[in-house]
Write a structure and sequence with these properties.
By secondary structure, chain A is α/β, with parallel strands linked by helices. Chain A is built from 12 helices and 13 strands. In chain A, strands 3-2-1-6-7 form a 5-stranded mixed sheet, sandwiched between helices. A 4-stranded parallel sheet of chain A has the order 9-10-8-11, sandwiched between helices. In chain A, helix 1 links the parallel strand 1 and strand 2. The model of chain A has no long low-confidence stretch (mean pLDDT 92). Chains in contact: A-B, A-D, B-C, C-D. Chains A and B meet through helix 1, helix 5, helix 6, helix 10 and helix 12 of A and helix 1, helix 5, helix 6, helix 10 and helix 12 of B.
């Protein structure tokens, strides 16, 4: 029988983490009458368990609308390859056994891991070694497989859309090309969705290699029709993870690659050689990972938080919660971490973007 | 072959209407090379067609983030039962034939009707009489059957959640019961979702008859645990459409029913007899129908707008677009209008609410 | 020499209270090296001093953007006329001596009172009896004399403006009269400012008695020019505190006055007799007192919080901080509480409103 | 007697421009019964007057809450030094006489110029040559002399504050240094105000030369007290316009200066050599110039727009409107453009920042 559980958050920030924590703690404490222990700073908190604390109603008071995570996240990385200083050098050690020992010592009958691809991978390995782990998928990038959406994604899309809205009137009044760089190292979900929502003219994503001349064509076509401005939304990985790295390799060879700052500045440089229009860039950065979650994300996070306790109650260890249509379902963690969810270049959403006269730069 | 289409909006306001119009007009004009006619003020615009205008790129400039509808909606109601003044009295006439005639006269090969239950019903009847109609479902209440979500709903939920957030700190600092009245005459979707997202303590919806004593119990239980405040979210139809009308009927008999203003004031009166805590009410009203749509709603609306043109291109008249999981699909209009989508009192979302220690008043 | 101070908040909620507390505590602890005691629940906390706590950096962590007050406010009212149950009846007692005794017992060398007209009055009386009190003016209504602005006011105006924005598109698309009821029992500051900012057509405030026929004239004039909608912003006190109470008295005599709910519903009823247009009302209520303060209010509150400590350091007891132009100044509490700040019916702001074609209903 | 006026906007974008235009047009058309001509694209529109149009109520419908300017702004710059292509080369010509001629030809009795330092300078020179010009000051930077505030400034501060809020939780949860780069080439108004409002730990402005070691000290001091994160707000001109250019010159000499992207990336590089903490940067860019104006800015802009018409009516040409305390006043344009308004390093606001334990890097 379950008596006591632990909960931790791992990886980058994501709006809704606190909403998951709150929901899990509420359900665990008041529905299931379990004890709940908060593990501080991700898996680190199970290696050095001095900061673990017993959670009660006060621990979660007022956190629903707050960004960040009251539990903190790991700084040092993978416990299976944990960086340790030895004789002045950094070496890597497997400290996973310490985690298992501490779980036993704390008498945790279940451990909730809220994390992205990396944390869920660690969770799965710990599960295989015997830990009673259940998972909650987390990424603002929305690129985790086997769940329709992850919490935090739509908040990030809203933040980016709001920024595009603000840039739109300036672009129009002042006849400018404005480039907005959004998150997405491997996938274009935020760029594609915020681009459609914000009425972008050009969207550049890692899944669709782009051609700078096609971008210039689109800008010129717009000018010729009386729209003397263009909004470009670019995913941060659109160059590097784009299938066609021509521009990036050329830039590296030519030594024109910027050493600091976002890739949008590089795009601005490339475009500025082919147009006389003024160009401005905005790099949203971590504001996409913060802020109060939208209602959609709060609800999804709350549902995840409640349902993951049910997984523990049913002893479905090694599983994680996921959204499928309108339902929260459970899937083996292994299935989600073995693949990444990409934008389908021939799918309905891209087709919609094209029919809206958005250029994908190809 | 399709050469020319019309587009109209019917019924109450809903964030995202302009996003649908924009998407349909863009796809029709630039992807399909059709002519597009804007029908002003809903079906009225097809009875008195003097305000119909040809739409171009300028017609839709800058409307994506705007609430309302640039096409206006009908004031006078159902063309099959059209109110007409005759000899000083209002009589009802069937003017549907005039609509059919005007569609012919305008040489519209297809007509997009964006509307709720009422407008889609009219659309279906006109379709049966021969009009080439396709539909886009619209309701902030989210109670249309056969589509997972309608655009506008999550914007309304966000607006209500934002209001609850604002009320939360006051309730807590000032030890109050605060009642927030949200839209939902027949169904509790907005109340339930904004209540979960805003961290409400009590949610009252038409689908679950409530008992005032249970509400008082919950408030007292919270007080005894040191939470000297409670947030109640009530759907406007929670009394009248609630299965148990005891309170309302009693109030009518006793003459204590308020003649003007929201039902939340009545709830405040009823509660004030059973607690000494101070009570405040907020009636959000039409601010739930306005404002810039969230990214989610803009994307959904844009997808609907594009896909409904594809229905015309494929001559799937009598059909409407709908969201199923992540896909836009098409369904017969008839299937959607024949039923209403209620919150399942035993479904996953209600179960989640209860595990979050939210009282449903029962 | 000052060694130890106390701080309390009194009266209704107001965005920025926490920002004042944070600034005072920061300056007191780290600039002046004083001890700081948080008095819980306003003056009540000095009558029953069991909840007083020593404040440190952790006490104020994360509170800058939060609405409400971490110190709570008084529930029971004036310590000079304190309601006490005696033999089953409520009688009123002067308990101010207990407050003075507790200030001595706690060895407070200074006491910061953040409050409105009522709390500052109490503060002034306590000061006259010997308490080392300094004040911070607080009201969302902006009707305190001797300070250009109070924190919280512009946040309330922003909240009301945002609501008017959301209602605007609906009013326009759906040809409606929409009435927005905002706070302001005695003065029209919020109504006037949010009305100008939101582009209202008619603004009704207590300082200018209105005439329903003039309102109808304005609505009809707008209709005749093609604007088939009107937005009315009404201060909650526009009827009752309006110099001309004709309508209200008539309503009372006729028994048509609503028993529950806002005065806007009454206005709707009155107008509905003279126009065929559809009318909707929104009663914003306490959402105007909540939410994160705007930057303007956070800065003003932070400045007040810092400067009020300087008053203590300089032993300017009996004084309060105030905004004059761009400077924070100090004035005797007595000067501010002896009068109320009204909108000047012949002042520049009203003249501006009229030149913007806004009807003041007169 | 005034019969006909023109209106133009010049320079960079600024929230509230449309609110000024709307107010001026409303007052001119309906209060003064003047004709109003919209000059498109700033002073360019008076050199090539083909896009000038007569404005009516429809011209300004719905623009109050919109960012940007419906009149566009100049692309080509100063008419006194107008760039013209001659024989393939760009030469500079004085085309101011053409502007005077076109003003005569259009029979404009007055011309409203809404613009910043640059546009007001041009306006003043044209006035000296005989043009009936009145001015409205405009800058998001708030660095125009002789007016307490300019519209747009607080909207920019709010946007920056909102970004800092979003970054705060991430910084705290993830133990990071986060640098936010805001606008302000010459002055630190936005940085200082948004830094105070957002609860920044370090604020770097052009008026106060900073020392990187002092920044590191502050970060280390925070770490030692358990705050393992710091928020730095930096004005874009803090390096270059800072009185101490040591770092920048050294960087130029060492070739480590970034060629593209904001100066915050350079600060990140410099700091990263002296701390092991992870650093992230956000460059807000033009989102500070867009978005719907706050209520404060809408009201200020509306007041400016109305009052500037009164200047025309009173034939106070060569004057501009300004805010002084709570009043709109008029001052000679010449007085404002002859100086810039800097943050006083020894003023009240800086003193407040320091008492709030904010390091100014010195």
């Amino acid at each position: 029988m379950i008596k006591r559980i632990g909960i931790l958050t791992g990886g980058g920030d994501c709006p809704g983490l606190n909403a998951v924590i709150r929901a899990s703690v509420k359900s665990a404490l008041f529905h299931y009458n379990w004890e709940v222990y908060g593990i501080v700073d991700g898996f680190d908190g199970l290696i050095q368990p001095d900061k673990i604390f017993k959670m009660d109603a006060n621990s979660i008071r007022g956190i629903l609308p707050k960004g960040g995570t009251i539990l903190g996240t790991s700084n040092r990385g993978n416990p299976f390859k944990y960086p340790v200083k030895e004789e002045g050098r950094i070496v890597v050690k497997d400290r996973s056994d310490e985690i298992l020992k501490n779980i036993l010592k704390l008498e945790l009958d279940g451990l909730i891991v809220i994390g992205g691809d990396g944390s869920l991978n660690i969770a799965f390995q710990l599960y295989k070694k015997g830990a009673n782990i259940v998972g909650v998928p987390k990424t603002i990038d929305n690129d985790l497989a086997k769940t329709d959406y992850t919490f935090g994604f739509y908040t990030a899309v809203n933040t980016a859309t709001d920024a595009i809205d603000k840039l739109h009137t300036t672009a129009e009044s002042h006849h400018r090309i404005i480039i907005v760089e959004v998150m997405g190292r491997d996938t274009g979900w935020i760029a594609l969705n915020s681009g459609i929502a914000g009425g972008a003219d050009i969207i550049l994503i890692p899944e669709i290699p782009f051609d700078v001349d096609k971008i210039i064509n689109k800008i010129n076509e717009r000018n010729s029709k009386g729209s003397h401005f263009s909004i470009i939304v670019i995913a941060e990985g659109a160059f590097e993870k784009g299938k066609d790295k021509t521009y990036l390799e050329k830039a590296k060879n030519e030594g024109t690659l910027p050493r600091y700052g976002g890739i949008s500045n590089y795009l601005a440089m490339v475009l500025s050689k082919k147009t006389e229009m003024e160009i401005r860039t905005t790099i949203l950065g971590h504001i996409q990972r913060g802020g109060t979650p939208t209602a959609f994300d709060r609800i999804l996070a709350s549902r995840f938080g409640v349902e993951v306790c049910d997984l523990i109650a049913r002893k479905k260890f090694g599983y994680m919660v996921a959204l499928s249509g309108n339902n929260i379902v459970s899937i083996p963690i292994e299935e989600s971490i073995s693949q990444q969810k990409f934008v389908d270049p021939y799918g309905q959403l891209i087709e919609t973007a094209r029919k809206l006269q958005i250029s994908m730069g190809d």
